[in-house]
Write a structure and sequence with these properties.
Elements (H helix, E strand, L loop, with lengths): L1 H30 L3 H4 L3 E4 L5 E4 L5 E6 L6 E10 L11 E12 L2 E6 L4 E2 L17 E12 L4 E5 L1 H4 L24 E2 L5 E7 L3 E11 L16 E12 L18 E2 L2 E2 L11 E2 L20 E5 L8 H9 L1 H7 L6 E5 L14 E6 L8 E2 L2 E3 L6 E9 L10 H5 L9 H5 L10 H15 L12 H18 L20 H4 L33 H11 L5 H8 L36 H16 L2 H5 L7 H22 L5 E3 L13 E3 L2 H16 L8 H4 L20 H16 L2 H10 L8 H13 L9 H19 L8 H17 L7 H19 L2
Parallel strand pairs: 7-15, 17-18, 17-19, 19-22
Antiparallel strand pairs: 1-2, 2-3, 3-9, 4-5, 4-13, 5-6, 6-8, 8-9, 10-12, 11-12, 12-13, 14-16, 20-22, 21-22, 23-24
Helix pairs in contact: 4-9, 5-11, 8-9, 8-15, 13-15, 15-16, 15-18, 18-21, 20-22, 21-22, 21-23, 22-23
C-alpha cells in the first residue's frame, strides 16, 4: 500500500513538473515577438526583398522568403555622388557579384560564390568542384523573427548597408604615394545613413550616404571638398533577381575586342582552358525567320534632362549610328533613344534606365565614361550608363602640367601605373577629346564656337565621343589598332571622306585629323562607325551562330580594316606593348609621315602665335595655352614615331588562317631608320622646338589671388623642352626596347642593337661636335650620358642585358674622345668638361 502511494506521489510530481515546464515554454514562446510586432513602427517597402525602415531611427530590417534561400542574386553598386580626390565620383561603377542566402541554425548568411571556374556537369571531376576554392561569407546575422505559416524570416540589415561590407569605398594608398596626399578618414557609422529606398519586383535599390571622419587631415583636397574632416560619398546599392536562362552566351575570341567575363574550364584538356564569355545585351528577334528583324526589347537609352538642349539632336544621331552595325547582325532599330522628361519621377542612377548623363565637375575625372553592369555567370549586360563632362567641350585646360612637361606622364613603374586600373571601366576618351578640341581651336579657330552652340570642330568630336562610349556599353573594349584606314594624303580629301569613318573603329584614341591646307580640311573626327565596329558587332550579336558561321566571321580578322589591339597591347607606355601600330594619338596608314606633317604644321603655327592669340585688352592666357598645346602635340608626334624603333608587328590569326603572317614580324629596317632620322630632325636636333625668343616672355598666366605662392610663375622653358625630349629618350633606352631589339635580331630584325645604339649616340653629338652647343642640347646630352651610366652601373642596371651594357660602355668611351674638342664658347667647354668628368668617374667605378 505504501509502495502504491509512493508511486502515485512520484507520478503526480512528474506530471505537475512537466505541466509547469510546458507552461513556462508557452510563456517563453509568447514572449518571442512576431515580424508584425518588430516592425510596427516601421515603413514597409515591398519588392524583391521587402524592406522595413524604422520611422524613428531609420534603421533597416529585411524579410527573407524561404524560397529565396540557396538561390543566386546579383549585387551591384554605383557612386551616386562623391569627390574625385578620393577616386569616387558620380556615375562610377563599383563592384558586381553573385550572392546567395543560406540558413545556419538561428542565423542567415550572405555568401558570395567563386565564379572564376567552370566544371562540366557531365564530368566526374564536377563532383569535386568546390575543392580548394573559397567562397566568401561576407555577412551573417541572427534571425529576429520567423513567420512559420508564411515561411518568412526577419533580419537586421542596417550593418550590411551602413558599412563597407558590400563595397569598398575607401581606397588603399597608392604604393609610393606621399603621406601628404589626400585620403578619406575612418568610416563614421553614426553620421552615415540610408537616404532612399526604392523597391521593385526584380530589384531592391538603396541609396546610402557614407561619411568619413578625419580630424587630423594633412591634405584638404580641392575646392569641391567643403571640409576634409567630414567627407560624404553617396552610394547606390542594388540587389537584383538573377535573369532567366534564356540567354545566348557568346564565347570570346582574341581576334575581337569585347570586355569579357573570364572563367577557366577545370575539366578541359586543352592547352588553354579559357571559357571566357563576351559582355553583350540580350537581343532576341521579334521575327526570327526574317534576315532583318526588330528586337523584342530594344536597347533603350535616355538622355538625361540635364543635357543642353542645343546638343540633344547631335547626341541622338550619334547613338543611333550603332544601328548600322546591328543591321549586319540581323537587327533593325536595335537601339532607341528617349529624352528624360523634366518632371520624371525616376533618378538617373536607377538601374532600370540606361542614361546619358552630363556633369560639370570642379575637377573632372572623365570627359566620357561608359561602364556597364553584367551578370557574372553569363556576361549578359543588364544595365549601363554614360557619364559626360561639360568642361571638355569648353576652352578650359585641365591638364596643364601634362602640356608643360609630358615626361611626367611617362610612368616607368608598371606597379603604380596599373594599381587602380579597371580593365572594364577605365576610359580616357574624354580627356583625349578635350585635347583634340583644344588643338583644333589652336590650328583652325574658325571651325570652332565659343558658346553653347557647337562648331564643326566640337560637333565632330562630340559625335565621336558619344559613339565611343556607346560602344563600351555594348561590350566593346578599346581598339587601339583602329586608326590606320587612310593615307595621310587621303585624310586631306574631303570628297573622299564625306559620310565615312576616317578610322577603322570609333573605339580608338586617334589624333585629330587636321590638314596642312585649310582648304583641304575634311572632317576632324569620325562621324559614323567604322568597318571594324560593324564586323565586331556581327560577331557578338548575330543570333544562333553555328560554328561554321562563327569561323567564317572570324576568318576575316586579318583584313586591314578589321585589325584589333586592346589597351594591354598598345604602346603608350614603354613598359608594355610591342606593335607600333597599336598606339594612341596616331593616325593614317603611315604614322611616321603623318607625325612629320604634324611637326611641319606646328612649326608654322608657332610663328603665327602672336598674330592669332594676342587680342587688345585680353590676357596672355590664350597665347600661353596655344604655345603649350603645340609643344605637347609635337612631343606626342615624336612619341608615336619612336615606337617603330625596336617594334614588332603582331598577328593573332590562328594557324592556317587565310592571309595570315607569322605571329611576330619585326618592323622593317627602312621604317626603323626612317623613324630614327625623323627623331633626329624633329626631337633631338639643336633646332628642335625652336621658337622666336620674343614668345617666351609672353607666356604669362593670369594671376588669381595668391595662386603664385606655391612657386615662381616664370615659364620653365628648359624643363619643358627637356621633358618633351626625355619622353622619347625614355622609350629608346628602356630595357624592354633594348632587349626586344636584341632578341628580334634572331627572327628578322635587321636594325641591330649595335647599329641602333651607334646611331643614337651620333644623333646626340654629331651635329654640334665642332661648334657651340646650345643650352637645350646641353640638357639633352647630359641626360643621355646619365642614362648610359645608369645602364652600366645604376640601381636598375640588372634589367639591362650584357650586350646592351657593352654598347653603353662603348658609347661612353667614344663620347669621351669627342669631348676633347676645345672648340666653342665658355658655356660649351664647361658643358664638355662636365660630361667628361661624369664619364671618367663612371668608367673608373666599373
Amino acid at each position: 500500500m505504501i509502495r502504491k502511494i509512493s508511486l502515485l506521489i512520484i507520478f503526480l510530481f512528474l506530471t505537475l513538473n512537466n505541466y509547469a515546464q510546458n507552461k513556462k515554454e508557452q510563456q517563453k514562446e509568447s514572449k518571442v515577438k512576431s515580424i508584425k510586432d518588430l516592425t510596427k513602427s516601421s515603413n514597409k517597402i515591398d519588392g524583391l526583398f521587402t524592406i522595413f525602415q524604422d520611422s524613428i531611427d531609420g534603421k533597416l530590417k529585411m524579410v527573407i522568403k524561404k524560397e529565396q534561400f540557396n538561390k543566386e542574386f546579383i549585387y551591384f553598386s554605383q557612386i551616386a555622388d562623391g569627390v574625385t580626390e578620393a577616386g569616387r565620383y558620380r556615375g562610377s561603377y563599383q563592384n558586381e557579384a553573385i550572392f546567395y542566402l543560406k540558413r545556419y541554425f538561428n542565423k542567415i548568411e550572405f555568401i558570395s560564390p567563386n565564379t572564376n571556374f567552370y566544371f562540366d556537369p557531365t564530368s566526374p571531376l564536377s563532383k569535386s568542384k568546390d575543392a580548394n576554392i573559397s567562397e566568401a561569407i561576407f555577412f551573417s546575422t541572427k534571425i529576429l523573427s520567423e513567420d512559420k505559416e508564411n515561411e518568412l524570416f526577419l533580419i537586421d540589415v542596417d550593418k550590411l548597408f551602413i558599412s563597407e561590407i558590400l563595397t569598398r569605398i575607401k581606397r588603399p594608398r597608392r604604393p609610393g604615394s606621399s603621406s601628404l596626399s589626400f585620403s578619406l578618414g575612418n568610416f563614421d557609422r553614426e553620421k552615415s545613413k540610408i537616404e532612399e529606398i526604392k523597391n521593385y519586383p526584380e530589384n531592391t535599390n538603396l541609396k546610402t550616404e557614407y561619411v568619413y571622419n578625419n580630424p587630423n587631415y594633412l591634405n584638404s583636397g580641392g575646392e569641391a571638398v567643403t571640409d576634409a574632416r567630414n567627407i560624404s560619398i553617396k552610394v547606390f546599392h542594388s540587389l537584383i533577381k538573377m535573369p532567366d536562362d534564356d540567354y545566348e552566351i557568346r564565347y570570346a575570341d582574341a581576334r575581337t575586342g569585347y570586355f569579357t567575363t573570364e572563367t577557366n574550364d577545370m575539366t578541359s584538356t586543352k592547352t588553354t582552358n579559357y571559357r571566357d564569355m563576351i559582355n553583350k545585351w540580350r537581343l532576341i528577334k521579334k521575327n526570327p525567320e526574317l534576315e532583318l528583324s526588330e528586337p523584342v526589347k530594344p536597347i533603350t537609352w535616355w538622355i538625361e534632362n540635364s543635357t543642353p538642349i542645343e546638343w540633344r539632336e547631335t547626341i541622338i544621331n550619334a547613338v543611333l549610328q550603332w544601328n548600322i552595325a546591328f543591321e549586319k547582325a540581323g537587327f533593325k532599330n536595335a537601339i532607341e533613344v528617349k529624352i528624360q522628361p523634366d518632371d520624371a519621377d525616376w533618378d538617373a542612377g536607377d538601374i532600370r534606365y540606361n542614361v546619358l548623363r552630363w556633369t560639370s565637375s570642379p575637377n573632372p575625372p572623365f570627359g566620357g565614361y561608359g561602364p556597364s553592369m553584367v551578370n557574372p555567370r553569363t556576361g549578359e549586360i543588364i544595365a549601363a550608363d554614360i557619364m559626360l563632362e561639360f568642361v571638355h567641350f569648353t576652352n578650359r585646360v585641365f591638364y596643364e602640367k601634362l602640356y608643360q612637361d609630358p615626361s611626367k606622364n611617362m610612368s616607368l613603374n608598371p606597379i603604380n601605373e596599373e594599381y587602380f586600373y579597371d580593365k572594364n571601366h577605365s576610359c580616357s576618351a574624354g580627356e583625349h577629346t578635350h585635347e583634340n578640341i583644344l588643338y583644333g581651336k589652336t590650328v583652325y579657330p574658325e571651325f570652332s564656337n565659343n558658346d553653347i552652340k557647337l562648331g564643326k570642330l566640337e560637333e565632330d568630336n562630340m559625335i565621336r565621343l558619344i559613339m565611343h562610349e556607346i560602344g563600351h556599353t555594348l561590350g566593346l573594349s578599346h581598339n587601339m589598332r583602329g586608326s590606320h584606314l587612310y593615307s595621310p594624303d587621303e585624310l586631306s580629301n574631303p570628297e573622299l571622306l564625306k559620310g565615312k569613318s576616317i578610322n577603322t573603329s570609333v573605339m580608338e584614341y586617334p589624333a585629330l585629323n587636321v590638314s596642312l591646307d585649310k582648304n583641304k580640311q575634311a572632317q576632324f573626327s569620325d562621324t559614323t562607325i567604322g568597318p571594324y565596329d560593324k564586323w565586331v558587332i556581327e560577331f557578338g550579336y548575330k543570333p544562333n551562330l553555328t560554328e561554321n558561321e562563327r569561323e567564317k566571321i572570324l576568318s576575316r580578322s586579318n583584313e586591314p580594316e578589321l585589325a584589333f589591339g586592346n589597351d594591354a597591347d598598345d604602346m603608350r607606355s614603354s613598359s608594355r606593348g610591342i606593335d607600333p601600330r597599336v598606339m594612341v594619338y596616331d593616325l593614317s596608314n603611315d604614322p611616321i609621315k603623318f607625325s612629320i606633317d604634324r611637326f611641319t604644321l606646328n612649326k608654322r603655327l608657332f610663328n603665327e602665335l602672336k598674330e592669332k592669340f594676342l587680342k587688345q585688352g585680353s590676357t596672355y592666357d590664350d597665347l600661353r595655352r596655344a604655345y603649350y598645346i603645340l609643344g605637347s602635340s609635337s612631343s606626342t608626334a615624336g612619341t608615336v614615331i619612336s615606337r617603330f624603333i625596336g617594334g614588332v608587328y603582331v598577328d593573332r590569326s590562328v594557324v592556317g588562317q587565310k592571309g595570315s603572317t607569322k605571329p611576330y614580324t619585326p618592323v622593317s629596317y627602312n621604317d626603323q631608320k626612317r623613324a630614327m632620322n625623323a627623331l633626329k630632325k624633329y626631337i633631338f636636333s639643336p633646332s628642335s622646338f625652336n621658337v622666336s625668343n620674343d614668345i617666351y616672355n609672353l607666356l604669362a598666366k593670369q594671376r588669381r589671388g595668391f595662386d603664385f605662392r606655391s612657386g615662381p610663375e616664370d615659364p620653365k622653358i628648359h624643363d619643358q623642352i627637356l621633358g618633351y625630349q626625355t619622353r622619347v629618350l625614355s622609350h629608346l633606352l628602356h630595357p624592354n626596347t633594348l632587349q626586344r631589339i636584341l632578341d628580334s635580331e634572331k627572327y628578322g630584325n635587321k636594325y641591330t642593337l649595335t647599329e641602333y645604339m651607334t646611331d643614337l649616340n651620333n644623333v646626340m653629338f654629331e651635329e654640334d661636335k665642332n661648334g657651340n652647343i646650345n643650352t637645350f642640347r646641353q640638357n639633352l646630352q647630359a641626360t643621355y650620358i646619365l642614362r648610359l651610366i645608369q645602364i652600366v652601373s645604376g640601381s636598375n642596371s640588372t634589367r639591362y642585358k650584357i650586350p646592351v651594357k657593352s654598347m653603353a660602355i662603348y658609347n661612353l668611351e667614344k663620347t669621351l674622345k669627342f669631348l676633347r674638342n676645345r672648340n666653342g664658347n665658355i658655356s660649351t667647354n664647361a658643358h664638355r668638361n662636365h660630361l667628361r668628368k661624369l664619364i671618367i668617374k663612371s668608367l673608373d667605378n666599373i
